[in-house]
Design a protein that fits this description.
Helix content is 6%, strand content 40%. The chain has one helix at residues 185-196, and strands spanning 2-4, 20-27, 32-38, 46-52, 56-63, 68-73, 79-87, 93-101, 107-109, 119-124, 129-134, 148-155, 176-178. The strands form three sheets. The protein has a five-stranded antiparallel beta sheet with strand order 1-5-4-3-2. It has a four-stranded antiparallel beta sheet with strand order 6-7-8-9, with no helix packed on it. The chain is globular, with a radius of gyration of 18 Å.
Length: 206
């Protein structure tokens, strides 16, 4: 993922470069929203991070190697976890677990394996523990690989100090569970529509 700096201009539509919204997550405490979008026939490989007050202003625009499936803001630190990936069409489920530093725009790819893993869902349980649902590494002799996955618990004392390619297979090991692949497009479109059309003041009638 490569970041571009915040949008300092006065664009009427800060979401214009996102494309069709596919996934949106919010950090209400810090008034931040992350939106993943797709362009034309391309999948969700663009992510924008926005600060929302009376209007949305873009802070970062990021481009992902794989389609984005999951995002989660850290509960305390200025970090955004991004899970991406897809089936390669013949064998492997490739992808990345990315960590975006929201103050600097630095993006780290955390999985050491060169193919990574397709990340399907992410949830911060507290300031140390990130729960990640991932597709199996591949579907070789695995009839349920497309409907199940592995649920891993990754613990780090300080996520701001985590380095690139520092998560090993041991970190990503976890029990086999059902792994649905829900479609978040409609909810994302509605979220962006609300942010693009801020509420207007009501006028009293006599």
């Amino acid at each position: 993922m490569t970041p571009s700096p915040a949008d300092r201009g006065g664009s009427d539509d800060p979401f214009a470069e996102i494309g069709d919204p596919v996934l949106a997550v919010a950090d209400k405490r810090r008034r931040l929203v992350a939106v993943a979008g797709a362009h034309e026939d391309d999948e969700a490989k663009t992510v924008g991070v926005f600060h929302v007050t009376d209007r949305a202003r873009r802070r970062w625009l990021l481009s992902s190697q794989y389609p984005v499936n999951a995002m989660a803001f850290h509960p305390n630190l200025p970090l955004l976890a991004v899970g991406s990936g897809e089936y390669d069409g013949g064998y492997a489920f490739e992808g990345e677990l990315l960590l975006v530093h929201l103050e600097t725009g630095t993006v780290l790819s955390l999985i050491e394996h060169h193919l990574g893993r397709q990340v399907l869902a992410l949830e911060w349980l507290n300031h140390q523990d990130l729960r990640a649902l991932m597709a199996p590494p591949d579907d070789y002799k695995d009839g349920k690989a497309h409907v199940e996955g592995h649920l891993a618990m990754v613990r780090r004392a300080d996520w701001t100090a985590v380095g690139a390619e520092s998560l090993t297979g041991r970190d990503l090991a976890g029990p086999r569970v059902a792994a649905p692949r829900p479609d978040h497009r409609e909810a994302a479109r509605q979220a962006v529509a609300r942010l693009s059309s801020p509420p207007t003041g009501r006028h009293r009638t006599g």
